[in-house]
Amino acid sequence: MNTLAGQNTLRQARRKRIDASHALDGDADRLVQYYREWAASYELDVEGEHYRGPSIVAELAGAVQAAYIGSERAAIAVLDAGCGTGLVGIELDHLGFRLIDGFDLCETMAEMARQTGTYRDVKGDVDLNRPLPDYSSASYDITVCCGVFTLGHVRPHGLRELARVTRPNGFVVVSTERSYAEATAFENEVQRFQEAGVLKPVQYLSNGRYIGEEDAHYWAYQVGHR
Questions:
Q1: I need a surface site. Which of 29, 33, 142, 177 has the fewest CB within 10 A?
Q2: Is 90 exceeded by the pLDDT of residue 226?
C-alpha cells in the first residue's frame, strides 16, 4: 500500500494492536496469548511507530556504567527483564555489553530473543508480577526493563524484584509510559522504595520520546544495601 490512504490504514492497524496490549490488566494468561499471536508482526509494528524506548534505555544503562561502574562493559552482568524479541539486548550489544541475560512472560517472544544471538541465556514463562525464584539476589550489575511498566502489563511493585536481583550499588534502568506513570502512581511506589533504602534515583528523563505519539519517563536507580 503506497497511497496515503493505504499508509493510514496500516498505521491504524498497528496502533490498534499496540493499544489492545494495554487493556489486558496484567493477566498473565491473556498477555501470553496476545503476545504469542502478535509475535510475528511485533517488530514491524513497533518499528513502524518509531519505537525509541530500547535505544534510550540501553544508552542510559551505558551512561550509568560509564559514570559509576569501573568494570569494562564486556564484564558487566546485565539482566533484560521483559526482553520481548530482544530489541534492548541488541542495543546493549551494540554498546559493548556482552554478559546479557533476559526473560519474558511469552515463550514465543523469548525464543525470538534467543535467535538474536546477543544473550547468554533467555527464559520464557517468567511473570514479573510475581517473585522471580529462578533469579538469585544480587546477581546483576545492571537490570534494564523497557516497555514492561506500561498499562495492562506489570504493576509498580515489580520494581522491587528488579532491585532484589541487582547487586547493592548496582543499577536498575526502566521506562514508564507517561500514561502508566500517571495511572498507577508509580512515583509514589518509588518513594516508598527510596524511604526503605531499596532504591535511590540517580537519573530521570522526563517526557522523552517512546513510541508513536506516546512519551515516556526514563529512570535510573541505584540499589541500596538493604
A1: 29
A2: no
